[in-house]
Design a protein that fits this description.
With about 500 residues, the chain is α/β, with parallel strands linked by helices. The chain has helices at about 130-135, 150, 160-175, 195-205, 230-245, 250-255, 255-265, 305-310, 325-330, 340-350, 355-365, 370-395, 420-425, 445-460; strands at about 10, 15, 20, 25-30, 55, 95-100, 105-115, 140-145, 185-195, 215-220, 225-230, 295, 315-320, 400-405, 475-480, 485. The longest helix is centred in the C-terminal third of the chain and has 24 residues, at about 370-395. The radius of gyration is 21 Å and the shape is globular. The mean pLDDT is about 95.
């Protein structure tokens, strides 16, 4: 990047032509790996074929990993989840937002990994536009990666964790190329929400990620959302059965990505696949069919085990959740009206002590309808307590936060739900403002300014204005209240394996 022409950058594979938007040079759709189709389907990410001339990096819409449209009742989720499948082969690409003019010193780098339950999402979401972080002084990157069958089913004959391998390839690209955009490869923060938060947490414990980043921001997702390979293969077998093929790479490669999407949807129906371990716990809690697995070269051991062995101790961690995560799944849908027998049945199928778990939360939240008791259980079991547990297991610097602004959407029912915080993180409230959007009509700019500022500050130098997390004092910073509290253990703590279980 030059002062004379900041919209032109020569990467290792060729020149890319972006555009200058205000004080930010934007480059979209830069390939970090070859298209994962044909002979490259179900293979580890392959090198990009160099090109001649200038690659146009200005279009706003680019191909995405195969996926279906995410819907939850009447809510408009396009800005925070996805807007459907943008077809095309060349989707292992990334965007870069670089401050202009170039500075004398290299700038910090922030790499965004989107969420979407490992089946939806892409780098071009409206709410997660990286211009705001560039305006705050960071060279900002957002990546695509393989999803669902293509990226997270463990298939015999194919490498496991292909989606995580894509992320690693993108981070390696950053190390080799980001200096050309004015970024410092020695000062990289990776951050993500939901499946993105789970992914960055997992990468923290991967030996293949060593040296690729220096800080992690995990939002609404922790690295304990993983399965051993043998249990995860139960989902592979079920999807293959719906496809009518053998559960190996030859079988899956014989069917199209579109066919795989349809089969995956059938296998995702409640109760279709039992992913419980020997203790009766399903680490995906019935809401995810495929995700990261451990027991390979990417994740040799469970992330909580790795953390307690000191893996990732040199990486600073900021991890947190929203207060009422699961309301995004319950409030807009009939799940909120689920009767007690249904709620208890579901909990028994994801937890060995589901009935007692339901009863404990019914006592903790007296007066809640059965469906919303289930919602409260899922919030703590899958999100809030795993975040605290991950911070406790980490042997380095950890800070914990909670996003506590309640959305007025759905007549106030949406509350402090999963995903609402993305636009606040990116200081991009216009993306979620409107009667059918998750921010309602007037989401507070002061909260967005504050949360964005905290993330930008952490990405710059790792500092934050509240104490590090420790299991004795348990300081948790409330974003809207702008204070830290000493939080007692959540009720879910009595129902999830203790950290010593993973040692």
């Amino acid at each position: 990047m030059s002062k004379e022409d900041p919209a032109l950058v020569r990467t290792e594979a060729g020149a890319v032509r972006g555009r200058v938007e205000g004080e930010v040079a934007v480059f979209r759709g830069i390939p970090y790996a070859a298209p994962p189709v044909g002979p490259n389907r179900f293979r580890a990410p392959q090198p990009v074929v160099p090109w001649d001339g200038e690659r146009d990096a200005t279009p706003l819409v680019w191909p995405t990993s195969p996926q279906t449209l995410a819907t939850l009742g009447s809510l408009d989720l396009a800005a925070i989840s996805n807007d459907g499948w943008h077809r095309g082969d060349d989707y292992l690409t990334l965007n870069v937002w670089a401050p202009t003019p170039p500075a004398e010193r290299l700038r910090p780098v922030m790499v965004w990994i989107h969420g979407g339950a490992f089946i939806n999402g892409h780098k071009d979401l409206e709410a997660a536009d990286g211009a705001s972080f560039a305006q705050s002084g960071a060279v900002t990157v957002a990546i695509n990666y393989r999803l669902g069958v293509e990226g997270f089913l463990p298939i015999d004959g194919a490498p496991t964790n292909l989606g995580l391998r894509d992320m690693l390839a993108a981070l390696q690209w950053v190390q080799r190329n980001i200096g050309r955009f004015g970024g410092d490869p020695g000062n990289v923060t990776i951050f993500g929400e939901s499946a993105g938060g789970m992914s960055v947490s997992c990468l923290m414990t991967s030996p293949l990620a060593e040296g690729l980043f220096h800080r992690v921001i995990a939002q609404s997702g922790a690295g304990s959302t993983v399965l051993p390979i043998d249990i995860a293969k139960r989902a592979t077998t079920r999807v293959a059965k719906h496809l009518g093929v053998s559960p190996d790479v030859a079988g899956f490669a014989s069917r199209s990505a579109e066919d795989a999407l349809k089969a995956f949807a059938k296998a995702s129906r409640p109760g279709a696949v039992d992913l419980r371990d020997d203790t009766g716990l399903n680490a995906f809690y019935g809401f995810i069919l495929a995700g990261p697995v451990y027991g390979d070269d990417v994740l040799p051991e469970h992330p909580l085990t790795a953390l307690q062995h000191g893996v990732g101790k040199d990486v600073d961690l900021l991890i947190g959740t929203t207060t009422e995560e699961a309301k995004i799944f319950f409030s807009p849908t009939p799940l909120r009206l689920a009767p007690k027998p249904v709620a208890r049945w579901v909990l028994r199928h994801v937890h060995p002590d589901g009935n007692r778990l339901y009863d404990a939360y019914a006592r903790h939240y007296p007066g809640l309808r059965a469906g919303m008791v289930w919602c409260a259980v899922f919030t703590d079991l899958a999100f809030r307590w795993p975040a605290r547990q991950f911070a406790e297991a980490h042997q380095g610097r950890s800070h914990v936060y909670e996003f506590d602004w309640a959305s007025p959407a759905l007549g106030g029912r949406l509350g402090i739900a999963h995903g609402v915080d993305i636009a606040f993180t990116f200081d991009n409230l216009a993306a979620i403002t409107g009667p059918d959007r998750v921010g309602g009509d007037t989401p507070p700019q002061a909260v967005a300014t504050h949360l964005h500022g905290l993330c930008a500050r952490f990405g710059r130098d790792g500092t934050l204005p509240w104490p590090e997390f420790d299991p004795a004092d348990r300081p948790v910073y409330q974003i809207t209240a702008r204070r830290h509290v000493h939080e007692p253990p959540l009720p879910a703590a009595d129902f999830l394996p203790a950290l010593k279980t993973y040692c």
